[in-house]
């Protein structure tokens, strides 16, 4: 079973959160340090977990795979997105990052799917 994209639900943000994100992007654009990058990753971690939960609760992940299993791949994809996003492009970061994060979930599912089949096959071989 390959994961499909669940329906979108908006994450509501306050004006203060929007202003805080804009300030973090301004800092990161001015000085690309690990501290500034990690602040942006922390800021969007809620968005990443929201996508993971949508896949998990929507039945888009196989039973042997949990949100915790894919979280590492999703967080690595989130870092990738922060490093490559250009705020002056006019795009919204969450729009830019959504497909990459969804792709990370699907890639992790494929990776685990093959591993699960290998484990199941070797266990079946023990009983013969």
TrEMBL record:
SUPFAM superfamilies referenced in this protein's UniProt entry, alphabetically: Sigma2 domain of RNA polymerase sigma factors
Domain of life (superkingdom): Bacteria
Family matches, as InterPro entries: RNA_pol_sigma70_r2, RNA_pol_sigma_r2
TM region positions: none
RNA polymerase sigma-70 region domain location: 40-111
One of the Pfam families matching this protein, by short name: Sigma70_r2
Name of the protein in question: Sigma-70 family RNA polymerase sigma factor
Organism: Natronomicrosphaera hydrolytica
